[in-house]
UniProtKB/TrEMBL annotation:
This is Pimeloyl-ACP methyl ester carboxylesterase. GO terms for molecular function: hydrolase activity. It comes from the Bacteria. Transmembrane segments: none annotated. PANTHER family: AB HYDROLASE SUPERFAMILY PROTEIN YCLE, MONOACYLGLYCEROL LIPASE. The keyword Amino-acid biosynthesis does not apply. Residues 29-253 form the AB hydrolase-1 domain. Gene3D superfamilies: alpha/beta hydrolase. Coiled coil: none annotated.
């Protein structure tokens, strides 16, 4: 039958944030997509998660239906957006799940507002050391997109085909002349500015809630970062998904479900 949701809008400091509330019983869960992503990436996870939880997803600032060109693209802006959505839910605390930069945002929310986060799930995300080339590298990658794509199928093929390619293609917008990105390149690059300049290990040490880190065999998180995460917070649960890449939530949602279900039973 597919997932059914009600769309909601939260306005914070004049910035429009749009998300989906799927309802469901039990504790609330907020799912955050990564850079250049969209809330629909979580469809496979929502399908099972809503059986025992109230599930909410968000198009983060600069992405899809939310404010396309926000003046503020700082880490604090992303964090305060998530806080505003959590507070709107009317729940005492939530389970926060994020992939890639969305996971980084989720970690910072848990550090800054421990009263709002019951548990944390990081999918291919870590505090990280400064990455000076990060913004330029992402900019170069975005420049390779042959926009507009001639068709949804052509976009899916460009992004590697399979569930990963479809997931990325589903974030595009169909217009008369083809399929366009629903974000602006400069906003994406600007959103990585702080990650290029400083580490976030202090914030990681400040997280107090139970935490699951799910990593892909062919992902982007260095082993040294994972080892440091566990040294700083030995109670952290780490699960590695074989054969998968950075977008493991799209590529292997079954393994992500297995890891999350086992973790959720412990909190």
């Amino acid at each position: 039958m597919g997932n059914v949701w009600s769309e909601f809008t939260v306005v914070r400091d004049g910035v429009r944030l749009v998300g989906r509330d799927y309802g469901g019983p039990g504790p609330a869960v907020l799912l955050l997509h990564g850079l250049a992503g969209h809330c629909g990436e979580w469809d496979a996870t929502v399908e099972w998660l809503r059986e025992g939880h109230r599930v909410v997803t968000l198009d983060q600032r600069g992405h899809r239906l939310s404010e396309r060109r926000p003046a503020d693209t700082s880490r604090d802006a992303y964090v305060n957006d998530a806080v505003a959505v959590v507070e709107t839910l009317g729940s005492s605390s939530v389970i926060l799940v994020g992939q890639s930069l969305g996971g980084h945002t989720a970690m910072l929310v848990a550090a800054a507002r421990p009263d709002l986060v019951r548990a944390l799930v990081l999918v291919e995300a870590a505090p990280g050391d400064p990455d000076p080339d990060g913004p330029a590298r992402i900019g170069r990658w975005l420049d390779t997109w042959p926009l507009p794509f001639a068709s949804h199928a052509a976009a899916a093929e460009f992004f590697g085909g399979g569930p990963v390619g479809l997931g990325w293609a589903d974030g595009l917008e169909s217009r008369a002349d083809g399929w366009h990105a629903r974000f602006d390149r400069d906003v994406m690059v600007a959103s990585l500015k702080e990650n290029a300049e400083r580490p976030f290990w202090t914030e990681w040490a400040q997280v107090r809630c139970p935490t699951l880190v799910v990593l892909a065999e062919h992902g982007i998180i260095p082993s040294r970062d994972v080892e440091r995460m566990v040294r700083q917070r030995p109670s952290t649960t780490v699960v590695r998904v074989p054969a998968a890449g950075h977008d493991l939530h799209l590529e292997d949602p079954v393994s992500l479900r297995t890891a999350m279900e086992a973790f959720l039973l412990t909190i």
